[in-house]
Amino acid sequence: MFQIEQLKVAVIGLGYVGLPLAVEFGKKVPVVGFDIHQKRIEELQSGQDHTLEVSPEELKQSKNLQYSSNLNELQACNFFIVTVPTPIDDFKQPDLTPLVEASQSIAKVLKKGDIVVYESTVYPGATEEVCIPVLEKESGLKFNQDFFAGYSPERINPGDKQHRVTNILKITSGSTQDVADYVDAVYNLIIEAGTHKASCIKVAEAAKVIENTQRDVNIALINELALIFNKMGIDTEAVLKAAGTKWNFLPFRPGLVGGHCIGVDPYYLTHKAQAIGYHPEIILAGRRLNDSMGAYVVTQLIKAMLKKRIQVEGAKVLILGLSFKENCPDIRNTKIIDIVNELKEYDIAADVYDPWIDHQEAQNEYGINPIKRLENGNYDAVILAVAHDQFRIMGAGQIRALCKKEHVLYDLKYVLDISDADIRL
Length: 425
Known about the structure:
- The chain is of the alpha/beta class.
- 39% of the residues lie in helices and 13% in strands.
- It is built from 14 helices and 13 strands.
- The strands form 3 sheets. It has a 6-stranded parallel beta sheet with strand order 3-2-1-4-5-6, with helices on both faces. It has a 5-stranded parallel beta sheet with strand order 10-9-11-12-13, with helices on both faces. A two-stranded parallel sheet has the order 7-8.
- Strand 7, helix 6 (177-187) and strand 8 (195-197) form a beta-alpha-beta unit.
- Helix 4 (97-107) packs parallel to helix 5, helix 7 (201-232) packs across helix 9 (265-275) and helix 11 (293-307) crosses helix 12 (336-345).
- The termini are far apart.
- The mean pLDDT is 96.
């Protein structure tokens, strides 16, 4: 029924997840990379990727890949992969709008025998409870009779050049056994690390959402330990290094938990849990603690400034880094903004410097204007917030040169030696 020889893939959404996937498939089979933003299409057609996930050389190697924002270009496709964002709203509830709109678009070109595979993070059941009804309603086709579905959760790690789409083991699933087998075979065309075929779509959805929930809860534990050790005057990193000498101690570090996955995915699971009458405790407690870390960082900074008799009101602070992780331009759900907003509450002026990010995106997303260059002798304090290689190279000497004579250097990411920073998380 399903033949690889007739495979023509459409990838819906060409961001951090979709583009690498489309590029790899484009080396093997015909692919249409679809995105609603014409500017993104033009950028990729020119051979550039502002996310830096795919190099110009890799884009050239994908000979069978074409880009389009025209839905009609998808009519010849028979295997649709959805990689649109699944964020949360201001009330920390799942926002499935991009997923629903992508499904509505696909439904306009859906034909008998087509397969739609979702990669976006969702709660268990969302594919069959939310997406499939949209496909049926808009297309007039019958699920598992006229068209079929699958779920294969993305595992992209932005900025990671070691773990790429081809060498990360892929979970696959399908709405029938034949579809599951075919979806698995399709992904095996590009996934060198192999695949794990889940027993059903809900299992695959649940596996994805707990991957990041597990990390979130573990980081929350380490954050809480950092709060305790700071009160005791004990260096947290020293404790973690000592504990890490045991073979089964998990190597988590304290910090801000932002980004498009770890700080978001747990809310998808807790939303579904509450919908079925269970009120999660550990997961939400971890979320509350991790979400409070920006305010805690500012409290620590102000205490250190007061000890050095630095005037807090009207002080000038430099924040090094805005992206949610090191060596990456991704500012989605960055928790550095929590520090910026908290400093404003104390009438502290904050400059943000990040050589990796798009300044216009920072303005559009958060209403801040990062500075473009660093000048010495300006600041009462510096928060080293993201461990970009550029900041490691600068070292404590160059970073302190940016400050006034009396200042505080806060190393949030353990970039510097303990003796080179005034305070650490």
